[in-house]
Amino acid sequence: MAVDPERHARTIASLTDSPYDAIVASSPTEVLLLTGYWPVMGDSIAFFTSDGEVRVVIPEDEVELAQKTSAAKLIPYKPAGLHTLADPLQLLKGPLQGVIDGLALPHTRIGLQLGQGVQPSSYAVCTQFRSRLVELLRELAPASIYSGCDELLEDMKAVKTTKELELMQTAANVAAAGFVEAARCIRPGLRETDVAAAAQSAFETTEKAEGLQRSYGYFFCMSGPNSATADAAYARTRQRSIEDGDLVMIHANTCADGYWTDLTRTYVAGEPGDRQGDIRAAIDEARTTGLRAIRPGATGQQVDHAVRATMELHGFGNAFKHAAGHGVGFAAANPNGRPRIHPLSTDVLKAGMTFNLEPAAYFEGYGGMRHCDVVTVTNDGVKVMTEF
Known about the structure:
The protein is an alpha+beta fold. It has 11 helices and 15 strands. A hairpin with a 4-residue loop joins strand 2 (45-49) and strand 3. Helix 4 (88-102) packs across helix 5, helix 7 (162-185) packs across helix 8 (192-205) and helix 10 (274-293) packs antiparallel against helix 11 (300-313). The relative contact order is 0.11.
């Protein structure tokens, strides 16, 4: 019944091996995981039972979009409008009761996302129900047992299906246009905002894959001393004018129907100097050793060590200020996303896992250089999804 039968079968297997009879999710990323549909405004709630029944309570104006990516049974409702000023959760009460009764969920064990989660922006705003949804479910099905299933959800998101990998590859492919344009236009005198806007425009206007419903992208430019602080948890484009000899870092996150990339390339405005050549050589070698360490059965700690040891060998260990990578796919940047490529990570790599590999070096007041790829663990090693 599913658009992605592989994900449908895996979810049934995960529930079979869990203490839950069903999972109920309202966060867009988890709705995407369970149904294949990435909600726009976050006003959708998904139900997935251990026998494979899938329901989504969804705003009526999102039904047409959802039908293109999901085979779940859609339960439309009318969200806020001229007919009412009711609390959005109250509008869901009747449809939720219908699903609960139809799936015979009373007296069942229901898993919910209760912990802190990372949600990519599916729109300019996004509804978050969480604790209020728990209260409503307990009101509608008081005999059920509710508990957090956050770890189960993270494990499920870690290994992608063939269809999910194809969408991630699509997101990576369309990102290339932005980097090509950035490399073409970077020069002294331009502002960071000029370069970021040019890369963004190239991404927006490049031809997208047939059948893709939603493609977003965010491009950032950080130059000279601003690139030196790009190890921070967020990217930031400013009005600084690029100077001759600057390191210019372009960072991007792109998505295809809810599946994300996390990418960085670094350029030089003008001719590179010897110091920049040395940093580049270290990062190139660290990337190569990191890729060689990736295989099923290896740990995140082992991959991080391979990258970090190479940077230390070149004298740049102290300048490599963050982990060598983290899970990517259902979000662009999630420090808890599996697998974590971190000095302390015991996460074991499996075929189908996707993450970024990002050797880097940052020097206060001077600049930073980072090369960030998205990779997939294969049965015999690794595939780089961002070979550009």
